[in-house]
Design a protein that fits this description.
Helices cover 40% and strands 24% of the residues. It is of the alpha/beta class and 303 residues long. Strands 3, 4, 5, 6, 7, 10, 11, 12 and 13 form a nine-stranded mixed β-sheet that branches. Strands 1-2 form a two-stranded antiparallel sheet. Strands 8-9 form a two-stranded antiparallel sheet. α1 packs across α4. The mean pLDDT is 87. Keywords: DNA-binding, Transcription, Transcription regulation.
């Protein structure tokens, strides 16, 4: 039995509140998680958990053992960090989380170059529009949209803003005309992204916000489709289905080669701040330091 692995699984079971949740967090099956817990209990000769069909509860010993496991695993992690710091060449697993569209269109191609420079670094990347906690989820690097939440020991470095462009395929514009002013969009088929509840851009689904010489203009838009996938809307726009407001990383190549045409360029569109985040006490690790420098070199916000 791998005692350290079993201890880490036990800690995750306690913190997640169930074996099923711990299995998802650890990338294991629920059966394997149960096997680790039973192996620990057999090794110790003491029960760690009291289980019923509806809940689990720590035994008195299980509570004490959990605290010791946290201490032991923390010491092991600190020892591994010390070993990584001693290495001249960056190595080990680097866990990164980033927004889906930015991750697919900008981060993924760049990772190939980073890997060429640092081939001993194993990249573990999670692309998600959910704000996964940097420390609780074990990430080394997080690229986040929006203003960063204040957190002790976390550094946020500003990247270039996340910007949007209103555009459409030439075929659509040939058939329906080119909007010359924001309110002209009301007469067009505008394809909207379905932002989840609570997102600070949820308003984009029903109205588009533009800013020009006359000030801010809120345009009520409607169309034949609302979709929760930027890639899906992108393909619909390329097919000539309607006008879209798309993240620039997704449409930059299409705008450059004419597959999509930018519209209302005299108006400023919404933008979101984007930040690179990492734990301050881990910056000394070569794998983190080199990736931070790599990312800032490509995407740092202009002074």
């Amino acid at each position: 039995m791998d005692v350290l692995l079993a201890m880490s699984v036990y800690v995750r079971v306690v913190e997640e509140g169930s074996m099923t949740a711990a299995a998802q967090a650890c990338g294991l099956s629920t059966t394997m998680v149960g096997n680790h817990i039973r192996a620990l209990e057999q090794r110790l000769g003491v029960s760690l958990l009291q289980r019923t069909t509806r809940r689990q509860r720590l035994t008195e010993f299980g509570t004490q053992y959990y605290q010791r496991c946290v201490e032991v695993l923390g010491l092991v992690d600190a020892a591994e960090q010390l070993a990584e710091q001693a290495q001249a060449e960056p190595a080990g697993r680097l866990r990164i989380t980033a927004p889906l569209t930015f991750g697919v269109e900008r981060l993924s191609p760049a990772l190939a170059e980073y890997h060429r420079h640092y081939p001993k670094v194993r990249l573990d990347v999670v692309l998600s529009n959910q704000r996964l906690d940097l420390l609780d989820n074990g990430f080394d690097i997080a690229i986040r949209l929006g203003n960063p939440d204040p957190a002790n020991g976390v550094i946020a470095r500003r990247l270039e803003d996340y910007t949007l462009t209103i555009c459409a395929a030439p075929a659509y514009l040939h058939a329906h005309g080119i909007p010359q002013a924001p309110m002209d969009l009301c007469a067009h088929n505008c394809l909207a992204f379905d932002y989840p509840a609570g997102d600070d851009w949820q308003w984009v689904e029903k109205q588009w916000r533009l800013e020009g010489a006359e000030g801010e203009v809120l345009v009520p838009v409607s169309g034949s489709i609302i979709m929760n996938s930027s890639s899906g809307l992108h393909q619909a726009a390329l097919a000539g289905m309607g006008i879209v407001m798309m993240p620039d990383p997704l449409v930059a190549d299409d705008l450059a080669n004419g597959r999509l045409v930018p519209l209302l360029q005299a108006y400023r569109l919404p933008r979101r701040p984007m930040n690179l985040m990492y734990a301050s006490d881990r910056y000394r690790l070569p794998k983190i330091r080199t990736f931070v420098d790599f990312a800032l070199d490509r995407w740092a916000r202009p002074a």
